[in-house]
Records
---
Amino acid sequence: MGGASNSNIDNNTGTWSGKVTDANNGGFVGVRSTPFQGGSLSLDMSQCKGIEIRFRRGNGKRFKFVVRDSTEFNGICWTTSFDAKANGSVRIPFSSQ
């Protein structure tokens, strides 16, 4: 692993940004948070239909998206893949998971 990719998340807006590069045989970035345990940070997504990801500089490459709903750090996850087109977005409906 090369470690040349980087990313960060704005805790106020939830905006995740960064640069993915395959330099040094790398090619992924990720973000994890501790599970929300009640209080003002809880996310009730029971009325949501899915997740939308917007990107500014898609390059046509395939990306993998993983989401978890467990408090276990490496628990069950749902995965999908998509091709990032320039200045585009992708909607990932929960019904497809």
---
Amino acid sequence: MDPANNSKKRVNEEPTTNGNGVFKKVNGTNGNSISHQETPEAEHNGRGTNGVEQVKSMTAAELLEIPTEFRANGLKVVTFRVVDNEQGLLTASESSAAPAPGEFNPLFVYQYFKEPGDEEAEAEAAAARSALLASDHEGTAVKNAANDSDNSEAEEEDEEEGMDGRIVLPDENEGVIAGYKDLKVTVLLTAATWKPFVAVSYSEALPPGQRSVTDIVQAVEKVYGHKVMTTNDAMLQAIKDDAKFVPIGRKVNGFTTTDKSNTEHAYEVYEVGKESQDLGYPARFSEYLALIQPVLQWFIYASRIVTTDDSHWLHYFLYQKTNDGSVRLIGYCSVYRFKMWPRKSAADAPAQWVGDHLHRCRIAQFLVLPPYQKSGLGARMLRSIITRLQEDSNTYEITLEDASPDCQNLFDVVTAFLVREHLSSQKTMTIDYKKPLPAEQITQIRQKLKLAPSVIKFAFDVLACSTARRQGREAIQDYYENLTVATQQKIEVHA
């Protein structure tokens, strides 16, 4: 599954100069439209000629010295395309100013290409990212332990697991790649395994010392940890191999949708890692995950590479089934299982929750490829994952890690639907949408849906506002007055 096994050795190309210290693009000679340019001494270890780093720091002052035509916005010049046949490869390889159907851009490039700018600001950003990643395990584990060790009902109601720390999407001008004129970076992914093919084209390039990225392909390879494909022959072979791919893991759900042309599409959600803590991950999965994780760094802020070294991870894959029997990977999600702090007695929680085998399941990485977004597939996938976790007797609570606004909204919508379905099915429970949900009902819903109290209360507020809106202005006024009274009473109790 390693793309390097399918790749031909690249043709070494000696850059030529136009006499003004600017390098001109030299085409490959093997008939495979290689647009990557490297010197004979370059090594595939993230360093270029004479051991020079492929991605180097460039200050704001140095950036201003680079001519404007040699500066490009990485978020615009890097494009992606998923291909599953030879025609798709040929179309994507053609140079065109207009975006091709199915082509999409990344949201972030900083993990691949260091952004030129103020060195102090870069250091602060790096420290912030490191702190965010560190809190993923150590900080969150301590927080979970503290929450679980305190059995106060009032504090348990006020838990805000997974609801804070929203990440703001990047500025449009972020991610400048300096040193290339008319730069275009095309990343092609095979349909089922996301094996990468990288093509780089430009009309002229400055000397290596004046580039923010000395060698773009090698900078990408450094993140992947192995070589990427750069020849059409290698990519065509990878496409053929993908056609035979069989999803790894256990199927947990399947559903169909109908598009605007009345064409029906079938999808399946697979889970990997349920028994990983006892039996390890399935064969071939480590290599497969190593192809998926680098893609996430283009689209998820502060995403780090997850490997099979940590058996606490669960992995979910959304596949689209094709007419010829093959599959396309269009969505991925990772969930981390934090071990619950052991309960001391049955008085602290229901009997079935006592013990050290329970987990807080935190949804960490979630991505549906851009061409498949805004069609309801993300909601179907997320609901399948939450339902699967709810069915697991070892799941205590399901939360969402620091999320982008769009991902947080998706989680809010799905959990609101789940809460509404649960409330509608309870014939013995009287629901008054004009008043806040009582604490005992929140506890009951939590035990069934395994959602944090803050998530349940937010979902109920959404449902209450929706109901009040249909009933008119007076119902909305009654709801907010009752909510104000309940909030004031809680403040007085804890004062």
